[in-house]
C-alpha cells in the first residue's frame, strides 16, 4: 500500500440550521486502502460521505480528492469517484443494461468502451443473463449488486459506499463484502464506506474512523483500536452468575473500576474493567450482593467494546433508528468523557 | 464547467429526456391515464357546460285559468297549441296540467316542478278587447340556470305567437309583407369564419385544455418529477456524474415537454375525431404556440423545483398556484362571464394569453399578426421567469 493520501479532509463542518451534523473533522485516506466510517446513525457519517462526493456543500473546512477541491473542482472530483448510496440508484422500468447505459452516457465514455465496460461489470456480478430484464423485478441482493456496478462504470479511483450491507440477508452481505475486498485488492480502488455494523468495519476496513456526534473520536486499524481496550490496564471479562439480579448489576455499575456493565443474557454479564484490583473488587461486590459466580473468562475485545470504551455508550443504543430532526439536539450522553 | 459546451449540455439533456420517455412508455397504467385524463376532462367540461340549447325536459306546470270571452276560450287554446308546437321541436319542457297557482308553487318547493306557466282568467277577454294579454311565468329562484333557460324559451314562444297575432291584425293594412310591419328589425348571427357558425362548446374548450395540459406539464410535472427522483435517490446518480447540473433540469423539462405535447396531441385528436371540432388556423402555428407555452412556464417550473424540498411541499405549492390559474384563465368558461375585477386578475395570468392565442388560431383561423399581443406577453413572461429561476436553481441545487 502506497503511503500517498488520495483524500485529505481538513476541518470539515456541516451545519443544518443550528444542528452541527459534522463537527470540524480532519483525516486522510491513503491510496488503495479500505477506510471505514463507523458510528451510529445520525453520527454524521452519511453527511461526511455526501460532502466528499460533492452532493452537499461543507459549511466550513475543505477536502480534496486526488488533489481536487470538492467545491471548486467539483466536476473533476466527480470524474474520480463512484457512489453507492443507501438508496438504490436505478430506474425500475429500465432494464439492467439500459440503466447502466444511461448512467454511463453521463460520463462521456466512447460508445464501444462503455458497451464493453457494461458487459464486464454485469459478468463480474453474475447478472449477464438478466441484462435485458427490468430491474424492478430483481431481488434485493441483485439490486444491490446493480447498485454497486453502476458506481463502477467510470472506473473510479475512489468508491464511496453508504451502509453497503443495510437490509441485506447474511448471504448477500457476505457477497458484497467479498466483492468490495476483491475490487480493492485487484484494481487498487480506494474504498470509503460508512457502516454502523461492527462486522462490516472489522472484516473490510484497513483503518476505521469512529464517529460520534459529528466528531472523529478515534482513528486507527482495527487491531490497534482493540488494543486501546485490552491494554495492560484494561480487561473485558465475562461473568456467568445463575442468580443474577438487577440490584447486583446496579452495584457492579457503581464500582469505580467498572467502565461499563452489560447484561448479555439472563445469567451473563460483560464487564469492562480497569486497574490492578479490578477483578478482586468485582468478585467481592458480587459475593457481597449474594451473587454466585460459576465461571469467569477474559474476552478478546470487539469493535463494539472499543466504541463503548471511547464514547461511553453502545452503537446499538441509537443505531436502530434515525434520530428525528426535532430531537437531534441531545446533550451529553450518559457517562460520556469519563 | 466552462469547458463543457452547449453540445454536451444538449447531449446530456436529450439522454435524460429519452430515459424519462422510455420510463413513461413502459408504464402501462400511466400510458392509459395519459389518454384517459384529457378524454375525461373534455367530456366532463363539455357535457356539464350550461347553455340554453342543451337544457331539455324541464318539468313545467301549466295552469289555464282563462274564463274565456263570450264563452269561447279559443285564444288561450291557440296559445297552448302554439306552445306545444314550439316545444315539440326544442323538447325543452315537459308540460303537465296543474289546477292552481298555489299548487305550482308547492310543487316547485318539493322539486316536482322546475317552473310554471299561468294563463290568467282575463286572458281571452283582454286580447279580444284589444288589450295586452298577460302570461305569468313562475320561476324556481334556487336554480338560476334553469329559470334563465325557461324564460328564454317562453319568450320565444310568446314572441312567435305575438308576432302571428299581430300579423293577422295588420294583414288588412299591408297584405304583401305583414312581418316587416310587425317586426321591422331582424337579427342574423354570422361567425368570423364562414360556415363555422355551428362552433360548439368543444371548440371553445379544446384549445383551453390543450394550453392547460402542455403548460402544466412543465409547471407541475417538472417539480413533481424532480422531487420524485430526489426521493428515489436516482437524483444523486445524476448529480455525481461530471455533467452540467443544468442539463439535469433541462433534460427533465424536455421529457415533460414531450409528454405534454403527446397529451396535447391526444386532446386535439379527441376534439377533432370525437367532438367534431374543426381547426381553422395553421396546425404548425398551433404547435408553435404549444412550444411557446412550454417556454413561458418552464422558468416557473424550475423555480418551484428549486424552492420545494420534497414532493409534498411541491404538490401543495403547485395546487396553490395552478388552481386559480385553471379557473381564472378562461380555460373552461369565457373570462367575459366573470365580474370585472376578476377579469382584471385573469389578465395578469399568462395562461389566459396562451389559451386565448390558441383559441384564436384554432377557432378563428388567426395568423401570427393577429396574436402579437399574446406572443409578446408569453415571451416576456417566459424570459423574466427564466432569468429569475436560473440563478435560484444554481444556488439551491447543492445544499
Description:
With about 350 residues, chain A is α/β, with parallel strands linked by helices. In chain A, about 35% of the residues lie in helices and about 25% in strands. Chain A contains twelve helices and 14 strands. In chain A, the strands form three sheets. Chain A has a six-stranded mixed sheet with strand order 6-7-8-3-9-10, sandwiched between helices. In chain A, helix 6 links the parallel strand 7 and strand 8. In chain A, helix 3 packs across helix 4. Chain A starts with a strand and ends in a 19-residue tail after the last helix. Chain B has about 400 residues and is mainly alpha-helical. Helices cover about 65% and strands about 5% of the residues of chain B. The mean pLDDT of chain B is about 85. The chains are: A alpha/beta (about 350), B mainly alpha (about 400).
Quick take:
Chain A has helices spanning 45-52, 74-80, 96-105, 111-124, 140-150, 170-187, 198-204, 222-229, 246-254, 278-288, 303-311, 315-319; strands spanning 5-16, 19-30, 34-38, 60-65, 68-69, 81-84, 158-162, 190-195, 207-212, 215-220, 234-240, 258-263, 268-274, 295-298. Chain A is of the alpha/beta class and 338 residues long.
Keyword list:
heterodimer; A: 338 residues; alpha/beta; six-stranded mixed sheet; four-stranded antiparallel sheet; 12 helices; 35% helix; elongated; disordered C terminus; B: 399 residues; mainly alpha; four-stranded mixed sheet; 16 helices; 4 strands; 66% helix
Amino acid at each position: 500500500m502506497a503511503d500517498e493520501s488520495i483524500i485529505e479532509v481538513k476541518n470539515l463542518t456541516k451545519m443544518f440550521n443550528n444542528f452541527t451534523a459534522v463537527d470540524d473533522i480532519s483525516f486522510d485516506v491513503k491510496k488503495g486502502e479500505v477506510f471505514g466510517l463507523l458510528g451510529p446513525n445520525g453520527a454524521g457519517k452519511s453527511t461526511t460521505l455526501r460532502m466528499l462526493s460533492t452532493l452537499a456543500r461543507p459549511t466550513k473546512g475543505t477536502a480534496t480528492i486526488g488533489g481536487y477541491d470538492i467545491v471548486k473542482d467539483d466536476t473533476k472530483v466527480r470524474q474520480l469517484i463512484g457512489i453507492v448510496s443507501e438508496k438504490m440508484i436505478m430506474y425500475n422500468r429500465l432494464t439492467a443494461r439500459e440503466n447502466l447505459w444511461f448512467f454511463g452516457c453521463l460520463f462521456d465514455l466512447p460508445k464501444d468502451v462503455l458497451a464493453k465496460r457494461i458487459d464486464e461489470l454485469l459478468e463480474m456480478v453474475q447478472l449477464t443473463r438478466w441484462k435485458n430484464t427490468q430491474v424492478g423485478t430483481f431481488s434485493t441482493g441483485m439490486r444491490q449488486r446493480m447498485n454497486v456496478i453502476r458506481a463502477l462504470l467510470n472506473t473510479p479511483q475512489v468508491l464511496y459506499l453508504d451502509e453497503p450491507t443495510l437490509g441485506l440477508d447474511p448471504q448477500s452481505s457476505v457477497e458484497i463484502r467479498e466483492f468490495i475486498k476483491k475490487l480493492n485488492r485487484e484494481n487498487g480502488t480506494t474504498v470509503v464506506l460508512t457502516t454502523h455494523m461492527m462486522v462490516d468495519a472489522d472484516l473490510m476496513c484497513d483503518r476505521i474512523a469512529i464517529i460520534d456526534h459529528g466528531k472523529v473520536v478515534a482513528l486507527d486499524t482495527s487491531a490497534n483500536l482493540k488494543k486501546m481496550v485490552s491494554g495492560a490496564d484494561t480487561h473485558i471479562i465475562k461473568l456467568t452468575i445463575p442468580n443474577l439480579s438487577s440490584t447486583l448489576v446496579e452495584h457492579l455499575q457503581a464500582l469505580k473500576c467498572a467502565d461499563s456493565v452489560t447484561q448479555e443474557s439472563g445469567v451473563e454479564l460483560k464487564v469492562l474493567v480497569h486497574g490492578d484490583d479490578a477483578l478482586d473488587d468485582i468478585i467481592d461486590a458480587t459475593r457481597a450482593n449474594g451473587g454466585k459466580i460459576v465461571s469467569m473468562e477474559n474476552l478478546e475485545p470487539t469493535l463494539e467494546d472499543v466504541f463503548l470504551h471511547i464514547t461511553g455508550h453502545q452503537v446499538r443504543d441509537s443505531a436502530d433508528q434515525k434520530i428525528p430532526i426535532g430531537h437531534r439536539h441531545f446533550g451529553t450522553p450518559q457517562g460520556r468523557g469519563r | 464547467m466552462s469547458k463543457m459546451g452547449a453540445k454536451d449540455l444538449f447531449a446530456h439533456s436529450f439522454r435524460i429526456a429519452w430515459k424519462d420517455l422510455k420510463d413513461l412508455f413502459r408504464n402501462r397504467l400511466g400510458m392509459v391515464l395519459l389518454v384517459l385524463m384529457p378524454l375525461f376532462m373534455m367530456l366532463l367540461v363539455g357535457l356539464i357546460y350550461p347553455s340554453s340549447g342543451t337544457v331539455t325536459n324541464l318539468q313545467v306546470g301549466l295552469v289555464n285559468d282563462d274564463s274565456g270571452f263570450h264563452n269561447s276560450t279559443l285564444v288561450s287554446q291557440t296559445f297552448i297549441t302554439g306552445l306545444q308546437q314550439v316545444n315539440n321541436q326544442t323538447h325543452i319542457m315537459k308540460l303537465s296540467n296543474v289546477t292552481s297557482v298555489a299548487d305550482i308553487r308547492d310543487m316547485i318547493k318539493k322539486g316536482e316542478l322546475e317552473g310554471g306557466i299561468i294563463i290568467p282568467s282575463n286572458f281571452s277577454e283582454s286580447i279580444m278587447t284589444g288589450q295586452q294579454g298577460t302570461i305569468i311565468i313562475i320561476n324556481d329562484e334556487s336554480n338560476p340556470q334553469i329559470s334563465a333557460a325557461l324564460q328564454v324559451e317562453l319568450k320565444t314562444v310568446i314572441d312567435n305567437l305575438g308576432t302571428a297575432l299581430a300579423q293577422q291584425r295588420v294583414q288588412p293594412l299591408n297584405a304583401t309583407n305583414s312581418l316587416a310591419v310587425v317586426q321591422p328589425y331582424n337579427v342574423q348571427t354570422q361567425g368570423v369564419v364562414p360556415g363555422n357558425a355551428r362552433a360548439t362548446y368543444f371548440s371553445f374548450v379544446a384549445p383551453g385544455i390543450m394550453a392547460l395540459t402542455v403548460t402544466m406539464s412543465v409547471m407541475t410535472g417538472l417539480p413533481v418529477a424532480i422531487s420524485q427522483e430526489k426521493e428515489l435517490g436516482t437524483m444523486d446518480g445524476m448529480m455525481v456524474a461530471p455533467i452540467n447540473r443544468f442539463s439535469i433540469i433541462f433534460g427533465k423539462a424536455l421529457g415533460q415537454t414531450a409528454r405534454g405535447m403527446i397529451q396535447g396531441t391526444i386532446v386535439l385528436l379527441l376534439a377533432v375525431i370525437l367532438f367534431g371540432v374543426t381547426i381553422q388556423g395553421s396546425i404548425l402555428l398551433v404547435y408553435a404556440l404549444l412550444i411557446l407555452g412550454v417556454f413561458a412556464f418552464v422558468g416557473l417550473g424550475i423555480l418551484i423545483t428549486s424552492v420545494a424540498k420534497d414532493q409534498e411541499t411541491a404538490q401543495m405549492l403547485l395546487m396553490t398556484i395552478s388552481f386559480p390559474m385553471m379557473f381564472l384563465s378562461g380555460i373552461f368558461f369565457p373570462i367575459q362571464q366573470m365580474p370585472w375585477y376578476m377579469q382584471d386578475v385573469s389578465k395578469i395570468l399568462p395562461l389566459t394569453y396562451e389559451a386565448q392565442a390558441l383559441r384564436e388560431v384554432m377557432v378563428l383561423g388567426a395568423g401570427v399578426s393577429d396574436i402579437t399581443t399574446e406572443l409578446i406577453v408569453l415571451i416576456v413572461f417566459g424570459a423574466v421567469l427564466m432569468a429569475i429561476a436560473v440563478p435560484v436553481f444554481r444556488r439551491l441545487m447543492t445544499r
